[in-house]
Write a structure and sequence with these properties.
The chain is mainly α. It contains 3 helices and no strands. It has a domain of 36 residues.
Length: 57
């Protein structure tokens, strides 16, 4: 087996690990955050609105 073959297998393994990491991260983000937060156009907008509403009460 040549060095190039080993490098090719290492590149495929790294690619597979990065893909797996991306999928797991997407699942974790989807689980931890609601669609409202993920789709808001301004960062923290939903949390800020909740805070302001809580202060009024």
């Amino acid at each position: 087996m040549s060095v190039w073959n080993l490098l090719e297998y290492a590149a495929w393994a790294a690619s597979a690990l990065i893909f797996l990491w991306m999928v797991l991260d997407a699942v974790r983000v989807s689980r931890d955050y609601s669609e409202d937060v993920l789709l808001s156009s301004r960062e923290g907008e939903v949390e800020l609105a909740d805070e302001l509403e809580a202060r009024r009460d």
